[in-house]
Structures are given as structure tokens and as C-alpha cells.
Amino acid sequence: MGDPAGLGPELALKAWRALHDQPDFAFVWIGDPAVLGATTEALQLDVPIREIAALDDARDLFCDCLPVLAVSERCGTVVPGTPDPAHAGAIIEAIGTGVSLCQSGGADGLVTLPIAKAPLATAGFGFPGHTELIGALAPAVPATDAAPMMMLCGPGLRVALATIHVRLADVPAMLDTRRLTAQIATLAASLRQDFGIDQPRIAVCGLNPHAGEGGLLGHEDDEIIAPAVEAARGLGIAVGGPQPADTLFHADARNRYDAVLAMYHDQGLVPLKMLAFWEGVNVTIGLPVVRTSPDHGTGFDIAGRGTGRVDSTVAAIRLARQIADTRQSTVNQQSGQPR
Question: Does a structural domain hold residue 291?
Fold first, then answer.
């Protein structure tokens, strides 16, 4: 559902309009049905909605209507563009329901629509965002120092983040050789398992300008990041770095790797969004469940106007399907079964 006062309900309706004639991308909307119904009416979107009790018949229904799985918590009054901590219960329940359906095998993957952190925090939500909550609900087995990780994908570029939603001033203290080694290993495993790349190549960004310039511009690159890269090589991973971030994202450089590990949020997301602002997808890697989301926020400033672009949401649905298929294909190959 995402935040009901944001673009989420509109994007779900538009995604159904874009995909309803393609059953391979069938999805169920989880949330307060009243929110979706009100959005349909307010924006005059011709999308038939049908509330269902279970997922069993959702795929067959998808071509004719958007199936809705209701949460027990309801949102009450929703004013587009105005977030409200009173919506937190329904938002959190929708996320938990989606994760549970993936864990049980009822759903192949979870696509989360954007949430706003401030109203959830006001309501007592104890996580920085979706990624951390889903990591707590569906922890990796065995547990690692890396999972969950946030990776952004767009045409021609994949960027994973060593740190996510933290102050820039706090980043250096959060970098640790052991954790970075685990993150490189998690990224390599995801490229194999989720994207079907047998021999993934990874580039690791330096933290400081010019990757520290041999210690002149900072010690973290030589003392923390470089040892992690060496340790990951010892695990058989094709990885290079730390490399200066300002020369890592041009077209020729992107041909030399399958994914980048950036040290902080904007270091990785600025080039990704420059290249694929409308098509970018957020993927949570290192978890037993498939989770993607559109690579943008709630859009409170344009919520309720009907002008939201659905490109990234559709891309997130398509990528969730692709990852689920790739994982299943790997399982079948390991068990000797046909796909």
C-alpha cells in the first residue's frame, strides 16, 4: 500500500492498467480497500476493484480486476498530500502481510510502494525504512553482517549501498572491513542468484576524493576498504577497488563491472538517477524473500492530482517477477527439475 496519502494508491491503479493483460505480472494490492476505492473515484480511473479473502484465485481475476487483500487496520480519513501518523498501523500491517505471503510461498515477491519515515517515526515505528523492517521480518539464514542491503537498478547500472539512511558525518565510523567483505559477498551472491550472472564483476567505490590519494585525503580507503576488497578476492570474487567514484560511472567504466558497491547513499544514487530517473528500481538483496520498490518517494506534493508517473512502479513489478523466476530456475537446476 505504501503511504495512503502519497502516490502509492494512484500508482497501483495505473500499474494494473499497464499490466492487466499480462498475467505473468499479476499482483494483489494489500491495504485498506477504502483508500483504493476513493482514489479510483477521485481520479476517475477506470479500474475495477475486487476484494478477496485469499490469494488462491487472484491470478485468474487479474485480467478483469485489481484484486485487493484487505488489512484489518483501516486508515480512516485520508487527505492526499497530507501524511498522518494515524495511518501507520495499516501501513505496517500491509508490509508484514506481504512479507508473510512471500515466506509461505503464497506470493513470489513483494513490491512496496513509497512510505514516509517521519509520520511513521511519530507513531513509534522503530525502523529507518522498509529495508530494515523487512530484514527484521525475514532475516537471512544464516545471518550475515551484510543483510539486508539496498541495491538500485536501472538500465546499464546496478548500485548497492554500504550504508543507507544515515548522516554523512556518521558514514566513516560505520565502515568496517569485516562488514564490507560480507557486503561484497552478499552482492556477488545476489548477482548470481537474482540476476543469473555466473561470474559477477564488482567495483567498489572509495570513500574519499581520489580514493584517499594514498592517505593524503583520508585513511579509510587504505585501512578499511582496500583490505575488504582483498578479503573478498580471497573468496574468489572478481572485485576491484577502492576506486575514485568520480571516474567510476561513465559509459566505458560501466562496461567493466556488473554492479558497484558505493559507500554512502548519494554517492551511488546520484549517478543511478542521472541515468535512469524514471526507470530506477530499489531491490533489497541478501534476504530469502524477493522485494523491490519504485526508486522514488511518496510524492506528497503531487498526490491526488493524477499526474504521477508509473514507470518505476511497473519496472519494480517486472524486476520482482524476473528475480523470482531466476531464483526458481536456479532451484530447479540444482534439483535436476525442468524450469
Answer: no
Query: Hey, what's the torsion of the CAs at 67, 62, 291, 111, to 10 degrees?
Result: -60
Residue spans of alpha helices (H) in 149-299: 171-174, 177-193, 220, 226-234, 251-254, 265-276
Instruction: State the Cα torsion 144-148-150-151 to the nearest 10°.
Output: 60
Rounded distance, CA 183 to CA 197, Å?
17
> Shortest CA distance to 31 belongs to which of 57, 5, 56?
5
What tens digit of pLDDT does each residue of 62-72 get? 999 999 999 99
SS3 178: helix
pLDDT confidence bin for 331, thresholds 50/70/90: low
Asked, for residue 75, whether it belongs to a domain, the answer is: yes
- Is the peptide bond between 67 and the residue preceding it cis, with omega within 30 degrees of 0? no
173: number of Cβ within 10 Å = 10
Residue 202 and residue 187: Cα distance in Å, rounded? 8
CATH code, domain with 148:
3.40.718.10
Domain of residue 219, residue span: 143-286
Same domain for 122 and 158? no
Where helices occur in 218-335 by DSSP H, the ranges are 220, 226-234, 251-254, 265-276, 311-335
CA distances from 65 to 29, 106, 143, 239, 330 (A): 11, 19, 40, 46, 32
One domain for residues 147 and 282: yes
Q: Is the pLDDT of residue 224 over 70?
A: yes
Chain segment 119-147, per-residue pLDDT in tens: 888 888 888 778 888 888 888 767 677 77
How much is the pTM?
0.92
Per DSSP, 56 falls in state T
